[in-house]
Amino acid sequence: MDVVRRRAGWLLGLGLLGGLVWATAVTLSMPGWYDPDRDCGKKFLTEDNLTTVRSGWFPPSASCVYGDTVRQYMSTTRSVVLSIIGVLLLAVIAVSLVLVVRRLTGDPGPVRTADDINLRRRRRTHLIFGAIDMALVFAVVTFVNVAAIAFGELPGAILFIVLTLVGISAFGAALDNHMGPLPSTALESRRRGTVAGLATYGVVFAATAFAGQLPFFRFWAAPAAGVAYAVIVGVQWSRATRPNPTQAQAVSRVEL
To answer: 131: which of 10, 144, 184, 230 fits an S-S bond (Cβ 3.0–4.6 Å)?
Structure first.
């Protein structure tokens, strides 16, 4: 169980990736939204005019309706198999998500000191290269979210958003661990990185919504993410390196 707790982030990522694959498999098992008449006619070898398509995501199902005649597009076997896989993936995602959240309130661990470390250079590195790295990540996200929405439809879009939030939070934590403020504990680093990642995504999402471009990010999302991340990290550095009044008073008393 300890191994599962330590690898909860990886388990959550794999579960969400599996969910995207599942959503794509369900979408491909249904008539295409762009030309359902052609897909239904090709499957049932008919040239009758299609009335409507009935589909559902849980349990996965799809049927083509020709007047009063309903023909099952998705087989019962496939529907059952996809339903079982969907339940298992949902359980994995739920359990691993709980474990990941618990890691943000766990043991802080030892304090990493700033001995022999140039904090000004470390801060500058974090602001510049961290922002570049975050911009590159959002460039990939901008490209992939089109495919996730196109092939996974609404469930795929939701899973992709959750996967992106988890991935960016983990990436932000990794950046903070390597370049973040010191002194600091591992728990503080994870929390700062998570906040920076989520806040950056929130800024890009809000900007995209304000521009009326949802659900698809635009190419300007990448530089916007880099700038937003640099600002957020700069604020975190300022707060982390700000002298603690309580500690300063204690030191003054000792000196006196």
So the answer is: 230
Buried b (16+ CB within 10 A) or exposed e, 39-63: bbbeebeeeeebeebebebeebbbb
Spatial neighbors of 154 by CB under 8 A, at least 6 apart, are none
Using CA atoms of 71, 74, 78, 79 in order, give the dihedral in degrees to the nearest 10: -90
Helix axes 221-240, 119-179, angle to 10 degrees: 110
In the chain, where does DSSP find H-type helix? Answer: 2-6, 8-28, 36-44, 76-103, 119-179, 186-210, 221-240, 245-255
Q: What is the pLDDT of residues 123-147, one digit of tens each?
A: 999 999 999 999 999 999 888 888 7
* Entry pTM: 0.76
